[in-house]
Amino acid sequence: MISGYAPVNGLQLYYELHGTDDGRPPLVLLHGGGSTIQTSFSELLPALARHRRVIAVEQQGHGHTADVDRPFAFDQSADDIAALLRHLHVDQADVLGYSNGGHIAIELALRHPKLVRRIVIESSMVSRDGCDPAFWEGFKGAKLESMPPELKKAYVETSPHPDRLQSFFDKSVERMLHFKGWTPEQLKSIQAPVLVLAGDRDIGTPEHSVRMFRMFPNADLAILPGTDHMRIVQRSDGVASLTESFLAK
Question: Rounded to two decimals, what is the model's pTM?
Answer without folding.
Answer: 0.96
